[in-house]
Structures are given as C-alpha cells and as structure tokens.
Amino acid sequence: MKDRSLLMIPGPIEFEPEVLQALGAPTTSHVAPNFIDAFGCALENMRKVWLAPEGQPFIVAGSGTLAMELAGANLIEPGDRALVLSTGVFGDRFEDLLTRHGADVTVLHAPIGEALDLNQVEDALKGGEYKLLTVTHVDTSTAVRMPIRSIGELAQHYNVLSIVDGVCSVAGEEIQQGDWGLDVVLTASQKAIGVPPGLALLVASPRAMEASSARSSSVRSYYADWAKWLPIMTAYEGRKPSYFGTPAVNLVAALDVSLRQIVDEGMSARFARHELLADAFRAAVQSLGMGFVATEPKDQANTLTACRYPNGVAAGDLLPAIKQAGVIVAGGLHPKIKSEYFRVGHMGAVCMGDILATIGAIETGLRSVGHQFEAGIGVATALKWQAEQED
Ligand SMILES: *Cc1c(COP(=O)(O)O)cnc(C)c1O
Prior knowledge:
This protein has 13 helices and 14 strands. By secondary structure, the protein is of the alpha/beta class. The mean pLDDT is 97.
C-alpha cells in the first residue's frame, strides 16, 4: 500500500502539491529572470503575510535557528542588556544564543505550561535598561502562546527592541507586526509558511534596521550579517540580480508559491481557520479524557497542541499505535516533562479532514493501549464543534 501517513507534527508539516512541484522543478541559475521575479515577489508578499508594510524582509538559506541568530547577531553588541521571556525550550535557546553574542542576559521563566505574567515583564523592563527583549510567540515545547501584542506595547513604551520568535506562529497565529510595533518577527519555512525546511525568514522594522546600522562594532558572524544581505534583498526586490551567497533557488521558488497561496487565502481567514481547527481538536482531545500542558485556554496555541497522556498510558506505547493508524504525531520536547505528553501540529494547509483523521488515529491508538472511552466520542465532538460554528 502507498505510504499515506499524515504528518501532524509541529514542522515539517504537510505541504501543498504546487509547493512541492516548484521545489522539484529544474533548478535555474540564481540570476535567471524567472528566479529573480520569484525572489522579488516572495519578498513583497512577506510584508503582506507579516502585516508589516514598512518592514525589511530577509530570506536566507538556513533553519529557524539561523533566523534567531540573524536577529541576535545584528542587534546585540558585547555588553548590551537583553531580557529573554521564556515559556519553554525555544526561549531558553535565545538565552544561550544572545550570551554567545556577548549580551548580558536576564531570563524570566514562566512555570511550565503557563504564559508569563505581563506585570512581571513590566517590572523587569522598568528596572532593566535593556536594549532588547525576546519573546517566543508559541513555544513548540509547551504549546503556550504569549500575548505578543501587549509585549510589543510594553517594549515600545520602555524603548526596548522586541524580537518575536514566530517560528511556530507566523502565518498561523494572528500577528500584525507593523501595527503592534514589533521589531523583528522571525520564522522558518517548514512550519505554518508551508515550505520544506531550509529557509530562515524574518522581517525587521525600520527601528531594528537603524539599530543595526548604528552599531559601533562589526557583526561577529560573517554569514548572518544583515549588511551583507540587505543589498541582495534590495536588488532582488528591484528585479535585479545580486550575489553574496548562492540563494536556495528551489526553496525560494517554492516559497513564492506558498506565500501567494497564503495571500490568496487572506490573513484574517487564515488566522480564523487555524483557531477553529485548534478549538475543534482540543474539544475532541478533552472528550477522550486528556488534558493539556498549557492549562489556561487563553494561553493555548492555534498552531499546535501539547496533549497529556491519560493516566496509565505510556509514551512508548501510544505514539507507535497512532502511527500504525496512519498519523504521525510528535513526542514531548520539554526535558522536565518529556514523557508526560505528546504534540500535534495543526498548521499551514491543515483542514478539518486532517483533524478528523488525527483524532480517529488517536482513538485507535488509545483503544489498542487499553484506555477506556466511548468509541467515536472524539470524532463526534470535533464534528459537533464544527457544526456549532457554522450555525
Ligand atoms: C522549530 C522552532 C525553532 C527552531 O527552528 P529550526 O528550523 O528547527 O532551527 C525555533 N523556535 C520555535 C518556536 C520553533 O518552533
């Protein structure tokens, strides 16, 4: 039988056939007219997807961690103070990264499964003289979502640059970079942007670009230096070729296709779709007797869900059984609670059929490991949820 497993992890996700076709097309020169146009359109569409009309987009070959590094390397000079808001593994990664670039880092850790309290953030900003703060919009290790609109307002008020790790949120969760005053919003191709792994993507505000050009020391990373990449982005957007490092030609062509699809769907429709499917999925998971790592509904992400195993069910038993039933989900990631939960990504091209298939596979898996529940209750709950939304 054809391998038709459904990939429901928090990246890489299921990709649209047109995107994969672009990826598999014959590779052109990086100065071929068609490619120049694809690169230029992708840059223009990034501003629309990020809702950042004044922003400067960057497309650089690498993973999401490179996007984090692009932000850190260009905005931190040795001795600068940085505030890291951590809601899981990816927040902690920023502590390590900014420290490497010479920052004096303070970290606020939220209790596992909770968002950080805004008063606590404000207290830290009041006393801190920070140059920048980082916030993980959705931490993929806990599925906790931070209220980045409020964080952006606080950062503006205290004149601190804001870096949003949106790797698990851009093009899935609502972000209005321009209106919300966020300085850098970064992501990677393989999550809700819907392109196979390999591109680091970010949009920087005019304020962030000014801060990087006002540096007194040069950027310590050669490859990550915005000053090397800015002329390339400007040239391609003006439909002229330019060279610093060879662009990932096929990935950029695939990105162009995916961004067009996203813009065609419309950002508010896309955000609403993610919200509806996430709510339906969570209602179903609860009906099967499972809870979530993120306990408060307001902190629960729309791009992925971290589900706690029911009592008596072990990770090693359930995940292979779900896979056997045709759906691939991800194990726990946070080192302190790794064996207590699993993660399901529902972002990008996800539809209700994928949600139903996933719940069906989870039900099949639960039954095979002996968990007691009313057969079909998960699928029925999701369908009922959908019907109620349509009424
Ligand atoms: C996936 C992810 C990253 C890391 O991206 P890579 O492409 O794996 O380097 C960083 N932050 C968040 C929130 C993520 O979900």
